[in-house]
């Protein structure tokens, strides 16, 4: 009897050992952890010497920092565009209190000059020179190529536009978009045929994208009639500030 029990124990030990050895030799290796690095598409220099895309990054200055849309904020897109470019050249990250103080400096000068809420691109150039001593250049009948030349040199561009045209691609505007609106072009993307802008008129306007066709079609300076409803009679112009 004792021999029989010993035989069973030996058999059990051999069986357990065999199972252990088999598992050890045939152990399934742990799954390989694969980390996928998604790299951005490389910039390509085209035959004209310009990159196929470019973006300037800077502070977004909302037209209504406190989300109040009574005057002067309802028509403060010109001032907002100027501050956006100014903060870019100053490498400035401004909080709301700083923005409000800087807005008031512009409003005060406009009041001293006897100007209304809506001002032309030439008047915006005057403000930039008086307040911050910027040189300026107004581009008559600008082209997509004109814009790319400046943007590739890290020079932002202010454009006056018909907000009704912009509304085709930006439904964040209320009432079908403003008649007269200003925004800042910060980049372009030839792969998607889009400009990248800070559209200061909506809270979703940072690095917003408009197609080349829509943005170019929207560009009009304040009309000679001084009635914003006649915006499409305004000459296509753009403003470049030079530090």
Characteristic terms for this protein:
7 strands, single chain, alpha+beta, two-stranded antiparallel ribbon, Cathepsin B, Chain A, 243 residues
Structure description:
- With 243 residues, the protein is of the alpha+beta class.
- It has one domain (53-242): Phytochelatin synthase, N-terminal domain (Cathepsin B, Chain A, Alpha-Beta Complex), CATH 3.90.70.30.
- The protein has helices spanning 2-25, 77-90, 96-112, 121-132, 144-151, 163-166, 212-218; strands at residues 53-55, 135-140, 157-161, 181-189, 194-198, 208-211, 237-242.
- The strands form 2 sheets. Strands 1, 3, 4, 5 and 6 form a 5-stranded antiparallel beta sheet that branches. Strands 2-7 form a two-stranded antiparallel sheet.
- α2 (77-90) packs across α4 (121-132).
- The longest helix is centred in the first third of the chain and has 24 residues, at 2-25.
- It starts with a helix and ends with a strand.
- 32% of the residues are buried.
- The model is unreliable at 31-36 (pLDDT under 50).
What's this entry about, in short?
The protein is built from 7 helices and 7 strands, in the order αβαααβαβαβββαβ.
Summarize the topology:
Layout: H1 2-25, E1 53-55, H2 77-90, H3 96-112, H4 121-132, E2 135-140, H5 144-151, E3 157-161, H6 163-166, E4 181-189, E5 194-198, E6 208-211, H7 212-218, E7 237-242
Helix pairs in contact: 2-4
